[in-house]
Amino acid sequence: MKGLGVGMLGKRMETFWKRFSKANFLYLTMATQRHWQLLQSAFKKASAHLQEHSDTRVSKTQCAEEIATFITEDFGFSINERTLRNYWNSLEKNPEQNPIQSEVLEGLSRYLGYHSYSNWIIANDMRVPTAALPNNRKLYWIAGICVVLIVVLVSFYYATKQRWMAWKEDHYEETDFDSKLLQTGVLKPYDASLLESFKKVHKDSIAQFFSADGSPLIWYGKNPEGEYEYFTDLDRHPETGKSLKEITQYIIEHHIENRK
User: Fold this and answer.
1) Quick one: 20 exposed, middle or buried, by C-beta within 10 A (0-12, 13-18, 19+)?
2) What residues are paired with 188 via a beta bridge?
3) Is residue 37 over pLDDT 80?
4) Within a domain: residue 242?
5) Of 117, 132, 147, which residue sits at a domain end?
6) pTM of the shown model
7) Smallest Cα–Cα separation from 193: which of 248, 234, 244?
8) CB under 8 Å, gap of 24 or more: what pairs does 208-215 form?
9) Which residues have a Cβ under 8 Å from the Cβ of 191 and sit 6 or more positions away?
10) How many domains, in total, are found in the chain?
11) Which of 9, 112, 187, 217 could, after both became Cys, cross-link 182 (CB 3.0–4.6 A)?
């Protein structure tokens, strides 16, 4: 039954992503088609303007130079005629791909006399047909459900496969997952090194504080009651969560009995 539910969920998610990808493809296709129409309109205007002052046929290069000069000088975005010709050639071959850079779209719209690219779209009534896309509300609802389910499944997998440990008196012990202990900070991800080497020791049982090269062998910190406690490795205090400090001669002399 559990496997059947997961299988149905997988099929529904697969269907959703197919529909979402199709909708996204349709939207991007329509967007690049608008880019092509905008570029054509700009070249048409440039050609008409240049033709008024020329007895010969105006070339695409001349149109591109006219538009590039406007975008660079009047709009403030640096572009050359070759870039515009490349846009023209690529979109002429495939108007459903090779989208135009947003700054260029704004500059082309300004050249045509519009305040912005969005104003050009509105003025030319180039809305995406609603029939081309799935119902947006339903799409977002399905997307939200899928996200929640993915989070739940990942969390379940992580909780059941991840190994855990918890502090017990003076050492860490491996234990089962417990959501309450995790929320309170008692439960920690399994760490073999800490499990093996991190212990709390009584001050009277410490035989050596430093190694031969002077490196610390003991670290200390205060418990919730403000009392000093001592540990055999560097980590955070298991109860307060504060970083431990390496032992010093001052701590030895002033806080550990019979050590002068």
Assistant:
1) middle
2) 165
3) yes
4) yes
5) 132
6) 0.41
7) 234
8) 209/247, 209/252, 210/247
9) 165, 172
10) 2
11) 187
